[in-house]
Design brief:
This protein has 121 residues and is mostly beta strands. The protein has no helices and eleven strands.
Length: 121
């Protein structure tokens, strides 16, 4: 089994910064992809940033130049550095990891529990 634990959310003023973390533990052979999603009230969950195992990143247009996704492979942890935050960034943020538990198993997707980010003055 695999567990994901998110941390780092909170209340921040517009223009401020936060760093989210998502740590994976359990049976992990390889992490193929690490993504961050968010869901604002009344809206569908949307992809914010993705990081492939080979290091390729991709961002939603709304966060390009402000958010950075990164990983610490030794700690099986993915981060989302969020700068120049805006009120429209307010949402629950979820990490999603595509993990292969053993060399012979196909990968499975795992969601974090979600962490609230509120941008308000």
């Amino acid at each position: 089994q695999v567990q994901l634990v998110e941390s780092g959310g909170g209340l921040v003023q517009p223009g401020g910064s936060l760093r989210l973390s998502c740590a994976a533990s359990g049976s992990i052979f390889k992490i193929n992809a690490m993504n961050w999603y968010r869901q604002a009230p009344g809206k569908q969950r949307e992809l914010v940033a993705e990081l492939a195992s080979e290091g390729v990143t991709n961002y939603a247009d709304s966060v390009k130049g402000r958010f950075t996704i990164s990983r610490d492979s030794a700690k099986n942890t993915v981060y989302l550095q969020m700068n120049s935050l805006k009120s429209e960034d307010t949402a629950v943020y979820y990490c999603y990891l595509d993990i292969r538990s053993t060399w012979y198993q196909t990968p499975s997707g795992y969601w974090g529990q979600g962490t609230q980010v509120t941008v308000s003055s």
